[in-house]
Amino acid sequence: QVQLVESGGGLVQPGGSLRLSCATSGVTFNIYRMGWYRRALGSQRELVGVITGGTTNYADSVKGRCTVSRDNAKNTVYLEMNSLKPEDTAVYYCNIQNRWGTQDYWGQGTQVTVSS
Prior knowledge:
With about 120 residues, the protein is mostly beta strands. It has no helices and 11 strands. A hairpin with a 6-residue loop joins β4 (about 35-40) and β5 (about 45-50).
Protein backbone atom coordinates (compact mmCIF):
# COMPACT_ATOMS: atom_id res chain seq x y z
CA GLN A 1 0.00 0.00 0.00
CA VAL A 2 1.44 3.33 -1.08
CA GLN A 3 1.59 5.95 1.62
CA LEU A 4 2.77 9.55 1.55
CA VAL A 5 3.30 11.39 4.82
CA GLU A 6 3.97 15.11 4.83
CA SER A 7 5.63 16.91 7.71
CA GLY A 8 7.16 20.27 8.51
CA GLY A 9 4.13 22.52 8.31
CA GLY A 10 3.22 25.03 10.97
CA LEU A 11 2.84 28.69 11.84
CA VAL A 12 5.51 31.07 10.58
CA GLN A 13 5.80 34.84 10.44
CA PRO A 14 5.86 36.70 7.13
CA GLY A 15 9.36 36.60 5.70
CA GLY A 16 10.12 33.33 7.43
CA SER A 17 11.04 29.94 6.06
CA LEU A 18 9.78 26.38 6.26
CA ARG A 19 10.94 23.06 4.91
CA LEU A 20 8.30 20.47 4.14
CA SER A 21 9.09 16.80 3.73
CA CYS A 22 7.09 14.01 2.14
CA ALA A 23 8.17 10.50 2.97
CA THR A 24 6.81 7.69 0.83
CA SER A 25 6.44 4.01 1.56
CA GLY A 26 5.07 0.98 -0.23
CA VAL A 27 6.04 2.38 -3.65
CA THR A 28 6.58 -0.39 -6.19
CA PHE A 29 6.82 1.70 -9.35
CA ASN A 30 9.32 4.18 -10.75
CA ILE A 31 8.35 7.65 -9.53
CA TYR A 32 8.56 9.89 -12.58
CA ARG A 33 6.77 12.94 -11.25
CA MET A 34 7.06 14.11 -7.67
CA GLY A 35 6.01 17.42 -6.23
CA TRP A 36 3.87 19.75 -4.18
CA TYR A 37 0.46 21.34 -4.51
CA ARG A 38 -1.51 23.54 -2.17
CA ARG A 39 -5.08 24.52 -1.48
CA ALA A 40 -5.97 27.71 0.30
CA LEU A 41 -9.30 28.06 2.06
CA GLY A 42 -12.03 28.61 -0.51
CA SER A 43 -9.70 27.99 -3.45
CA GLN A 44 -8.88 25.14 -5.76
CA ARG A 45 -5.75 23.07 -5.42
CA GLU A 46 -2.85 24.54 -7.35
CA LEU A 47 0.65 23.55 -8.32
CA VAL A 48 3.54 24.80 -6.18
CA GLY A 49 6.47 22.95 -7.70
CA VAL A 50 7.08 19.59 -9.30
CA ILE A 51 9.99 17.53 -10.55
CA THR A 52 9.14 15.69 -13.77
CA GLY A 53 11.91 13.44 -14.95
CA GLY A 54 14.86 15.78 -14.60
CA THR A 55 12.97 19.05 -14.94
CA THR A 56 11.59 21.20 -12.15
CA ASN A 57 8.67 23.57 -12.67
CA TYR A 58 7.21 26.13 -10.30
CA ALA A 59 4.13 28.25 -10.07
CA ASP A 60 4.86 31.87 -10.93
CA SER A 61 3.72 32.91 -7.46
CA VAL A 62 6.55 30.98 -5.76
CA LYS A 63 9.39 31.22 -8.28
CA GLY A 64 12.57 32.39 -6.61
CA ARG A 65 11.18 31.65 -3.16
CA CYS A 66 10.64 27.88 -3.24
CA THR A 67 12.79 24.91 -4.12
CA VAL A 68 11.59 21.36 -4.69
CA SER A 69 14.11 18.57 -4.33
CA ARG A 70 14.01 14.81 -4.06
CA ASP A 71 16.09 12.11 -2.49
CA ASN A 72 15.82 9.19 -4.88
CA ALA A 73 17.34 6.75 -2.44
CA LYS A 74 14.66 7.53 0.12
CA ASN A 75 11.83 8.31 -2.32
CA THR A 76 11.35 11.50 -0.39
CA VAL A 77 10.49 14.93 -1.74
CA TYR A 78 11.14 18.26 -0.05
CA LEU A 79 9.80 21.77 -0.41
CA GLU A 80 11.98 24.58 0.85
CA MET A 81 10.01 27.82 1.19
CA ASN A 82 11.58 31.19 1.91
CA SER A 83 10.31 34.75 2.17
CA LEU A 84 6.89 33.40 3.04
CA LYS A 85 3.86 35.61 2.56
CA PRO A 86 0.39 35.48 4.12
CA GLU A 87 -0.95 34.39 0.73
CA ASP A 88 1.16 31.24 1.00
CA THR A 89 -1.17 30.07 3.76
CA ALA A 90 -2.70 26.78 2.62
CA VAL A 91 -2.74 23.05 3.09
CA TYR A 92 0.23 21.63 1.21
CA TYR A 93 0.01 18.22 -0.42
CA CYS A 94 2.67 16.05 -1.98
CA ASN A 95 1.97 13.94 -5.03
CA ILE A 96 3.75 11.16 -6.85
CA GLN A 97 3.00 9.68 -10.27
CA ASN A 98 4.49 7.20 -12.66
CA ARG A 99 5.35 8.28 -16.19
CA TRP A 100 1.87 7.64 -17.55
CA GLY A 101 -0.10 8.99 -14.61
CA THR A 102 -1.72 5.62 -14.04
CA GLN A 103 -0.18 5.51 -10.60
CA ASP A 104 -1.17 8.74 -8.82
CA TYR A 105 -0.99 9.19 -5.06
CA TRP A 106 -1.49 12.05 -2.63
CA GLY A 107 -0.50 12.72 0.92
CA GLN A 108 -2.95 13.82 3.59
CA GLY A 109 -1.66 17.39 3.59
CA THR A 110 0.12 19.63 6.06
CA GLN A 111 -1.07 23.07 7.10
CA VAL A 112 1.16 26.07 6.53
CA THR A 113 0.01 29.33 8.09
CA VAL A 114 1.90 32.57 7.49
CA SER A 115 0.81 35.20 9.96
CA SER A 116 2.21 37.71 12.40
